[in-house]
Specification:
The complex is a heterodimer of chains A (663) and B (127).
Chain A lengths: L3 E6 L11 H9 L4 E7 L5 H14 L3 E6 L2 H14 L7 E5 L1 H5 L5 H19 L9 E3 L3 E5 L3 H12 L3 E5 L14 E2 L4 E2 H14 L3 E4 L2 E9 L2 E8 L14 H5 L5 E2 L8 E2 L2 E2 L11 E2 L5 H5 L4 H5 L12 E7 L1 E4 L3 E3 L16 E3 H8 L20 E8 L16 H15 L4 E6 L9 H10 L4 E4 L2 E6 L5 E7 L4 E7 L1 E6 L1 E3 L3 H8 L11 E3 L3 E5 L4 E3 L9 H19 L3 E3 L5 E3 L9 H5 L5 E9 L5 E9 L9 H5 L5 E3 L4 H12 L1
Helix pairs in contact in A: 1-5, 2-3, 5-18, 6-7, 6-15, 12-13
Chain B lengths: L2 H11 L11 H5 L10 H10 L3 H4 L12 H5 L6 H16 L9 H4 L6 H11 L2
Classes of the chains: A alpha/beta (663), B mainly alpha (127).
């Protein structure tokens, strides 16, 4: 015979103002099996929990129902209380009479009726609860960081600092990411390379860190604490272990007309190349799309000049497999290409550039050696117009609905640097809003206006027209003056929206993590779990989770590292016992559950069964890996034969709840 | 503020003026800007406030070319030209007069005038 205790919480006035809690406690006290039914002002407080604990001991309870807030809030609290009083924690059920009742209703009578019904359903369910024991699974003491930008580098350094092995997988030939392309950083104007490259070197020299550059994640299997990842090391046609990075091959390569992606295509590189002088690893890579030897079989100059004998035209992609306990995603962002906006003339006027292109034009290692020149005729620009929010805050299919967050600040930086270096240049910034929330950010923007006399104009550019004399007519509105302006400019700089890297979506599928409609990774909780994904063991670092500047990226990278370290420190992890299991005798091997499982927890195996006629037969049956299963229940719905069931949420329990509600 | 008038313009234009983020790109792109007393962004903002009377009495209504450049380039999909059109229709209906009668047409015709323009003009200026 069940002995169930019911505890109804007032939650101050949160519940008690709309629900007659005493009536709920009274009504539920008459339910079958209920031996005690009480109400209390704050059930989650220490004295409230004591009420539950004492009742468990005093009445020798076999089940507990707490009518309170959402189980997301305090289920764990009451499970712990029950466990400390000697009751299996999975014999506790929560009836949510706050979020799903008192908060959404106004009428006391109907809210009270509903609270009673929800309570009855929980009582009906707890009758069928079985004690569950959480299992344990070991943790592989090694982490994988996907992406080698500043986010990935910082995360890897922090995890290595804690003493764990870390691998960085970077799809480009060098780590460094977007920050390596940036000239100066706001709001301190320190040189990006000066603060980034020491970190790149530190990562390369750290014996706990392995960098797989020019590599991609090809496959992910497994679960928290025990992932198996296949990494594709793309053929770079150079033996990494032999190449010394002397650069002789890049000097001698006859194929010199390859658009240089590091300089945003503003100049050319050779077919065999090292992206930039401080690249890590400093190893050459041959671009098979342009290499004459790989394309036509004629040339071989690099192989002849290489004293280390590192060139290997026969190299192929290599797959390596490695086990990891934790995975950190740091895939970063890209600026969008503004070629869909015909009004800005980007696709046909070389003097209309994006902000990242301007970074390269102003960088000492850039195409002009740091002198700002117009790409079209290499003359010094005297009037420069900056256009904000190009593709950001857009409600159409051309742009992105969000604020890209970093553009206001980098535009103020560009404007200031140009005015500093070329005081004869007039700089106009067309803005919709100037958004500068950040330490020393607004002061920085004000400096651009007050000290450097950058012309900030509230309004948007409507049309950019290249003229025959090489100048550019910029037609814009000045909303405060209520005027339409025409500026005779030499250059136009577009602050384009940023978007997640294209590799993020296929990666999210492999990792079974969630993304939002903009392809940013979704965090487990927007406020309280910002660096964890909803999938256990997968953490998020940097702009892959949302637009971020460098200080925020580094902070989040370290936070993600801390979470990963917390996981790697454990020898084993407690699993959620509310997982699916399959009744092998009922399973017909149809694979329906395997197809719907978002976590890859279900596999099929051939098993020998003793048949009624005493013969043996081999049948294909499903089995659930309890360490991978997250208890979502999709399989139990998909299963046509009723073989799949979920611990703690069994089909019979759900039906009992429904019956109680419909009675 | 005339609520009925505002509701009528909201309905006939089909535009949600609250989507406007006040960037001014419509006015930045408008080829008739200098001809207009009230500019496209002001149409949107004044309709939002319900300040419609000055618009109804302004010649700006008839300076809009309905070229749809503002509609094409608005980052928020607000469609200012449709707001102007709705105010124009309100004015035409209020006055009860036809601004264009068929007898006026022959004098206006020239070889370059597309027939579409005449049809459009009737739609805009005739009750």
């Amino acid at each position: 015979m069940q002995r169930i205790g019911v505890f109804v919480c007032h939650c101050g006035t949160n519940i008690a103002a709309t629900v007659d809690v005493k009536a709920v406690a009274e009504a539920l006290g008459h339910e079958a099996g209920v031996v005690i039914s009480q109400d209390y002002q704050y059930m989650c407080s220490e004295s409230g929990q004591d009420l539950v604990k004492n009742a468990i001991k005093e009445h020798n309870l076999t089940g507990v129902v707490v009518c309170s807030c959402s189980p997301r809030m305090h289920e764990n609290t009451f499970r712990k209380a029950a466990a400390s009083a000697g009751l299996n924690p999975y014999l506790v059920e929560i009836a949510n009479i706050r979020e799903q009742c008192s908060w959404i209703h106004k009428d006391i009578a109907s809210a009270t009726d509903k609270a009673i019904v929800l309570g009855k359903a929980a009582v009906a369910k707890v009758h069928l609860n079985a004690p569950l024991t959480a299992g344990e699974s070991p943790v592989v003491k090694r982490a994988l960081v996907i992406g080698g930008g500043i986010a990935g580098i910082q995360t890897a350094l922090d995890i290595a600092e804690a003493g764990f092995e870390v691998d960085i997988v970077e799809k480009e030939p060098t780590i460094g990411g977007k920050m390596a392309q940036i000239d100066k950083t706001f709001p301190t104007l320190d040189c990006a390379a000066c603060i980034l490259t020491p970190k790149m070197v530190e990562a390369a020299q750290n014996e706990k860190i392995t960098i797989h550059s020019f590599s991609e994640v090809a496959d992910v299997k497994g679960f928290v604490g025990n992932f198996t990842v296949t990494i594709k090391k793309k053929a770079r046609f150079v033996d990494e272990t032999k190449c010394t990075g002397c650069g002789l091959c890049t000097e001698k390569c006859p194929m010199k007309k390859v658009p240089n992606e590091f300089n945003m295509g503003l100049d050319n590189r050779t077919a065999v190349y090292i992206p930039f002088a401080q690249a890590v690893p400093k190893v050459a890579t041959i671009d098979p799309n342009y290499c004459l030897m790989l394309k036509n079989g004629k040339c071989g100059v690099c192989s002849k000049v290489c004293t280390a004998g590192a060139i290997d035209y026969k190299q192929t992609d290599k797959m390596i497999e490695q086990k990891y306990g934790a995975i950190v995603v740091a895939t970063g962002f890209n600026p969008i290409k503004p070629d869909k906006y015909d009004e800005f003339a980007y696709s046909y006027c070389p003097d209309v550039v994006t902000s990242l292109e301007l970074e390269r034009l102003m960088n000492a290692a850039g195409p002009n050696g740091g002198t700002l020149l117009r790409p079209s005729d290499k003359t010094h620009p005297h009037t420069i117009v900056f256009v904000q929010c190009v593709g950001s805050r857009c409600d159409d299919e051309k742009g992105k609905p969000y604020c890209s967050k970093i553009c206001c600040m980098y535009t103020a930086k560009h404007a200031m640097l140009i005015r500093e270096k070329y005081p004869d240049t007039e700089v106009y910034v067309f803005y919709i809003d100037v958004r500068t929330p950040g330490k020393n950010f607004d002061e920085f923007y004000r400096r651009a206006v007050e000290q450097y006399n950058v012309h900030y104009i509230k309004g948007m550019v409507g049309k950019v027209t290249p003229k025959a004399d090489g100048k550019i007519d910029v037609q814009a509105s000045d909303l405060l003056a209520n005027e339409q302006l025409h500026i005779n400019a030499d250059m136009v700089v577009l602050a384009t929206a940023i978007e997640p890297d294209k590799t993020a979506r296929p990666l999210a599928t492999m990792l079974t993590t969630q993304m939002d409609t903009n392809d940013f990774f979704t965090e487990a909780h927007p406020k309280l779990r910002p660096v964890e994904s909803a999938t256990a063991g997968i953490f998020l670092s940097g702009a892959c989770q949302g637009p971020k500047d460098i200080p925020e990226t580094v902070a989040q990278a370290s936070a993600a590292a801390a979470k990963a370290i917390g996981l790697l420190c454990k020898n084993s992890i407690t699993c959620n016992p509310c997982v699916a299991h399959s009744d092998e005798l009922m399973c017909n091997g149809c694979s329906a559950c395997e197809k719907v499982c978002p976590y890859g927890a279900i596999t099929y195996q051939d098993k020998e069964f003793r048949m009624p006629d005493r013969s043996t037969a081999i049948r294909r049956v499903a089995s659930v890996n309890p360490a991978v299963c997250q208890g979502c229940g999709a399989c139990t719905v998909a299963c046509p034969s009723g073989a799949m069931d979920l611990n703690g949420f069994s089909n019979s329990q759900i039906m009992a709840e429904v019956d109680a509600i419909c009675k | 503020m005339n609520k009925n008038q505002k509701n009528w313009i909201d309905i006939t234009s089909g535009v949600n003026v609250l989507k406007c983020m006040r960037c001014g790109k419509c006015s930045a792109t408008c080829p008739s800007y200098d001809e207009m007393e009230y500019h496209p962004h002001q149409f949107v903002y004044m309709v939002e406030k319900g300040d419609i009377e000055p618009l109804l009495n302004s010649k700006s209504l008839y300076k809009c070319l309905t070229c749809f450049a503002c509609v094409e380039r608005c980052p928020r999909g607000v469609e200012p030209a449709k707001v102007v059109e709705a105010v124009r229709l309100t004015a035409v209906r209020q006055q009860g007069n036809n601004h264009l009668i068929p007898d006026m047409i022959p004098d206006m015709l020239d070889d370059d005038l597309p027939q579409q323009a005449i049809v459009t003009a009737f739609r805009k200026y005739t009750k």
